[in-house]
């Protein structure tokens, strides 16, 4: 495996060209993307367009249909953007200042004045805007936008941009493959370290250490090492100081972020022998994952893949433990669209990347997930890891 | 050092009582706190009131002046809240659902219906609300609140609640002390691992591994291992694959989160001998930190502490490199109010906890910070670490 694959600068520029082409086709003047450091969803568009990961302060990316893009941010991030992305046009706006802070040497402007200047420099009207990340935009910023453009001129184009993001390039596939490589090494380190008396957090430490040394930037979703009925019961878990005991079910969910992209693996492990109910659930979940994998190929409508997995779980009487639709894409967000729900009618396409996550939670014995990654090729779903879903008893 | 100090459940309940008392004193009917998984600011109020750290989905905490509190969240978090906090009243609302997802077995309500039910059960009007986390509230949620309460009835009480949070209890001091203990061990592990040819990310791996094994949950601000002029130049940095070279300035910023609280240490290290300019900057920053520490005692107006540090830096001709006001409180946010700016007139009080961060950035030679933590006692500022700010040459 080549060490440290990256997305080349040209590809980021190409993505911006695609956004500009979309604006022109849809008679929009400006693209606005909001991004922040929310752990799962926050950085997506800043990373996708400029390889920039906001931290501490949010940002807005403005791409006019004609002319140079600009990133708007707070007073502590302008040099951070210059140092870590290829953007050479950053402006600090008052809307992203930290209340109670004082910046004696910062040049601070406002969204309104940036748009005014853009209108002047480009010598054209900028009134119709397409927005992504809308759901996350804080209300004060949204109101400032509304005052400038008029709410009727602000169009949510998330769905169309998600479609652009859904088909991965060769570079993206290479980066995601490496993220899964890291995830697998992390998972293996976690499994090796499971022993009676070890705490969940110590096991997470081993997984994260292994991944960090291989180049992981952090996590797309917090590392889950959950053990016993109480801690494995919910879909999400906080990794605690609880010590693993004999007979415990230990649920591992490992999702490193690498160059802004993700790998995600979920695996339950038993210290000892599983109860009959746990063994049956594991067997059904593995079978469901295989069924979804077999269905996951170009041309298959998304809901058919969902059905393939659910059918197996229904036969095993486990359907009510499937708490969310878990066959989802993986990219600059660990859990991104398209999500293959029973309502998803579009077809799976070549070079999409899916996580087939089979979740069984809120059961009397706790919960588990088998989660693995697949690259959709013309020949079907290609696994992005070498580990197989299986019943592991330590 | 006692292992694993925690905030006892009674203290969380006591905090809610204080919020209720505040509501009554101010003729408010309901307290609303928004929280999410933004890396630095997101979880603050959920952690402070319910020991709950939202992840993946946001939440809103509603505390009526009389009656039981409720946490509103998305369909994947209700059992997560029950498993990790003492809250026993969680409702899933549509406003926090994930678009494109499908929850076949979830019971989902709306903010409006929750408030309607609360009015009925408590048999009283709920119209005047005090809000915190307002700055972060997504606009759709804010509009839903506005439609229910009327914008004129929504009062921002962030400032008053920050005042409540600013004075730390004995339990909080113990937890923060432990966070600094972890931070110090992490810092030392990082320093030990610095060597020619080691990458920034490998050094971060050593710091984080050490801290995770000691109980850290994650980071209050991303671990910074920045080296060389380009990477140390900005206030924030992304820890990269860059390999440390002879003569490099290496900036470490280590801020673990432990039980929702933080420690934060910043230390520059030189591999070799420092340039004259770097040595002068280091000497001035250390002197500035000592000056601020000496000024930091109960009764001193905040701006006096800021002045003490700035005066030293001005004398050294370095004032324009101080890019932000960096003497700030530490608690459930790594960088929280009060921030001792030149405009901060209130007095420092006993049992506040401050980080004295002396930042010098955007210099021709790059940037650095000396950051250490102090507990304000009646006798002055008590260091929360044993490491001293000093010029370290490896």
From TrEMBL, chains A, B:
Source organism, top-level taxon: Bacteria
Entry GO MF terms: aminopeptidase activity
Pfam families according to UniProt: Peptidase_M24 (PF00557)
Keyword flag Lyase: no
InterPro entries recorded: Creatin/AminoP/Spt16_N, Creatinase/aminopeptidase-like, Pept_M24, Peptidase_M24B
Residue ranges of every copy of the Peptidase M24 domain listed in the record: 176-378
Record has Hydrolase as a keyword: yes
Alphabetical UniProt keywords: Aminopeptidase, Hydrolase, Protease
Ranges that cross the membrane: none
PANTHER family, per database record: AMINOPEPTIDASE, AMINOPEPTIDASE YPDF
Protein name: Aminopeptidase P family protein
Source organism: Paenibacillus hemerocallicola
């Amino acid at each position: 495996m080549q060490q440290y694959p990256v997305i080349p600068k040209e590809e980021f520029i190409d993505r911006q060209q695609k956004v500009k082409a979309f604006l022109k086709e849809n008679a929009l003047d400006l693209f606005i993307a909001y991004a922040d450091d929310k752990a799962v969803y926050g950085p997506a568009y800043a990373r996708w367009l400029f390889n920039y990961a906001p931290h501490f302060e949010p940002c807005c990316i403005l791409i006019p249909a004609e002319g140079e893009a600009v990133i708007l941010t707070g007073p502590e991030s302008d040099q951070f953007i210059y140092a870590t992305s290829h953007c050479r046009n950053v402006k600090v706006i008052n809307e992203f200042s930290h209340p109670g802070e004082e910046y004696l040497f910062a040049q601070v402007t406002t969204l309104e004045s940036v748009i005014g200047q853009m209108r002047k420099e480009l010598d054209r009207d900028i009134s119709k805007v397409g927005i992504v990340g809308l759901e996350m935009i804080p209300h004060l910023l949204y109101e400032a936008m509304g005052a400038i453009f008029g709410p009727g001129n602000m169009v949510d184009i998330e769905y169309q941009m998600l479609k652009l993001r859904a088909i991965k390039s060769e570079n993206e596939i290479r980066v995601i493959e490496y993220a899964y490589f890291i995830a697998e090494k992390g998972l293996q380190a976690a499994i090796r370290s499971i022993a009676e008396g070890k705490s969940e957090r110590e096991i997470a430490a081993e997984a994260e250490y292994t991944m960090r040394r291989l180049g992981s930037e952090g996590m797309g979703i917090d590392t889950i090492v959950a053990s016993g009925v109480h801690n494995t019961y919910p879909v999400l878990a906080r990794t605690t100081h609880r010590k693993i005991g004999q007979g415990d079910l230990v649920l591992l969910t490992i999702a490193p972020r690498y160059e802004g992209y993700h790998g995600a693996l979920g695996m339950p492990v038993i210290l000892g022998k599983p109860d009959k109910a746990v063994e049956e659930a594991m067997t059904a979940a593995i079978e469901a994952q295989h069924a979804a994998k077999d269905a996951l190929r170009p041309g298959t409508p998304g809901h058919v893949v969902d059905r393939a997995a659910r059918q197996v779980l229904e036969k095993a009487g486990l359907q009510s433990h499937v708490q969310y639709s878990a066959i989802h894409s993986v990219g600059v967000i660990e859990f991104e669209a398209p999500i293959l729900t029973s309502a998803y009618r579009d077809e799976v396409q070549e070079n999409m990347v899916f996580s087939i996550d089979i979740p069984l939670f809120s059961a009397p014995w706790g919960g588990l997930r088998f989660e693995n990654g697949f690259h959709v090729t013309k020949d079907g779903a290609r696994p992005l890891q070498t580990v197989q879903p299986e019943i592991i008893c330590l």
